[in-house]
Amino acid sequence: DEEDYIAELKSRLTPEQSDAIISATHRPNRALFDLSVAIEKLPMHFMRKNEINKNLSIFEDTLGGCERLLSSPVPLFYSRHTARFISVWLLFLPFALYGQFGDSWNHVTMIPATALISLFLFGIEELATQLEEPFTILPMQGFCDKIGANCNEIVTWAGQDVYKMPEELMEHLESPELNTESNLDLIEESDDEEKSDVEDKIQEMEMESDDEAENDINVEDDTSSEMTSSDLEMESDLVEESDDEVEDDVEDKLPEME
């Protein structure tokens, strides 16, 4: 298994990456570290990187659960005690079945009945022992090959016209080595475009607020001017009325004085 594992790594990864994983004390952690580095170098928005890193964290949690299953076996005393109990029970089983098979010739049918019961019980005990370490009986290599084939199929979909990817990203994925400088340039360009869009929106909002303020001021001026003209008209009316009243009073008093 170790030789097949090393050959599989060298066929899929670069010599530096395969040697780093093979020489690592904890190989899964080294593989996860390489995946995180590759995600960080991808020319995409940081929000997408965060989502991919979340899935990578879920994968790491699942890996930890599998390691706990493998490294936490059932105590050996449990297996031995179960086997001893079944053996003693089956040893005294013929004495319990002796009276039940009294009608048969010389109780001969008791022998196959005891053998059949022993077969089933020891089979259950062996099944429990195998389930203590499920990875030794599961076809793990077949599972991994199936997952790898599915992932390779998903990668082929990226070349279709419906799922056409940007040329910069396609060149990046097809290159044998990751170019960090070009990735940084792409990221800076996308950030600059987002910043410019945000600044334009802010300027538009400021201009709209200024226009609204000017309109409010013009409306207030119009209302104030209308109020002043109306006030003047009312004052002039009052003055004319007072003058008329004074004239009437004078005319009334003149005949009396005469």
UniProtKB/TrEMBL annotation:
| Region (Disordered) residue spans | 187-258
List the molecular function annotations (GO) for this entry. Answer: chloride channel activity
A GO CC annotation recorded here is:
plasma membrane
Please state where this protein is localized.
Cell membrane
Superkingdom of origin: Eukaryota
* The entry's keywords: Cell membrane, Ion transport, Membrane, Transmembrane, Transmembrane helix, Transport
Q: Does the keyword Transmembrane helix apply?
A: yes
Per UniProt, the ranges with Acidic residues bias are: 187-197, 205-224, 232-251
How does the record classify its membrane topology?
Multi-pass membrane protein
- Assign the protein's first listed, main location to one coarse class: membrane
Q: Which InterPro entries match?
A: YneE/VCCN1/2-like (IPR044669)
PANTHER family in UniProt: UPF0187 PROTEIN YNEE, VOLTAGE-DEPENDENT ANION CHANNEL-FORMING PROTEIN YNEE
The protein in question is named Bestrophin homolog
